[in-house]
Amino acid sequence: CLSVAGSTTGELLSLMKRSSVEADLMELRIDGTAEMDLPRLLEARTVPVLVTNRSRSEGGSFAGSDNERCVPLLAAVEMGAEYVDVEMNTERSLIQAVVQGASERGGRTKVVLSYHDFTGTPSDSRLRDLVDDAFSLECHMVKIATTAVTEEDNLRVLRLVAETTRQNRSITAFCMGKLGRISRIAAPFFGSAISFACLEKGAETAPGQFTAAELKILSGMIP
Predict the structure, then answer these.
(1) How far apart are CA 99 and CA 139, in angstroms?
(2) What is the CATH number of domain 1-111?
(3) Nearest-angstrom CA–CA distance, 211 and 218
(4) What does each C-alpha distance from 39 to 9, 22, 35, 48, 144 come to in angstroms?
(5) Domain 117-194 has CATH 3.30.360.10
(6) Active-site annotation holds for 140
(7) Which of 143, 178, 201, 216 is catalytic?
(8) Fewer CB in 10 Å around end: N or C, the chain?
(9) Which one of 17, 116, 178, 201 is the catalytic residue?
C-alpha cells in the first residue's frame, strides 16, 4: 500500500497519478490537505484506496474534534471508498456510525480500526485486548503500529499477527522506528494484510517507512 499525503488536492492528485503504477492499494492521507476535495480524489483513483484522516495525537496533522475528523470518513463511505481508517481512540458512537454506514451500503467499504503508539510497544495482553476491542466494534480489519524500543518488540508484534490470523481475523501490524523496520518486511509472511510504503525518500508518513522500491526488493529476498 502506497501512502500519499499532499498539502492541496492538486498535489495529492499528482501524487496519486505517480503512485498508481507502483500501488495495488493507496492510502490517501487527507489530514494535511487544505480545502480537500474528496469527490475529486475518489473519482481520480485507479486502484483501491484507504482514506485516512489522521489526528495529531496519532502522528497526523488533523487538529479538529473527533466529530470533525469523521465527517470526511463518513463521506468516503457514502462515495464507496474501498477502505476507511478510524482510530480506536475515537468516540465509540462515531466508530459505530462509520461501521453502520458501511454495513448499510452493502459492505463495499471496509472499516479499519487503527492504533498507534509512538513511545513503545504494549504488553502481549494489552495487544490482544486491542484486537478484541476492535473486533467487538465489528470492524473489518485492525491495524496496530507500535514503536520498537528493543528487538524483542518486533517479535511480540509478529506473534500477535500470527495469532490473530489463525483466528481468521484480518490484521495489519508492525513496529515503527529504525529498530522496527525488520517487522515491516517480515509481517506479511506472518499474515499481516497490508504493507505500507512511500513513493520516495522524504515522503514517509510514519517513522521507519520504506519506499515501495525498497520494500519490494527486501521482501523479494525472503524465500
Answers:
(1) 7
(2) 3.20.20.70
(3) 11
(4) 10, 23, 12, 14, 28
(5) no
(6) no
(7) 143
(8) C
(9) 116
Alpha carbon 155 to its chain centroid, in Å, reads 20
116 is catalytic: yes
Per-residue pLDDT reduced to its tens digit, 105-117: 998 999 999 999 9
| pTM, two decimal places | 0.94
For 25-76, the pLDDT digits (tens) are 999 999 999 989 999 999 999 999 999 999 999 999 999 999 999 999 999 9
* Grid coordinates belonging to 4: 500519499
Q: Which among 142, 151, 9 has a CA at the least distance from the CA of 86? A: 142
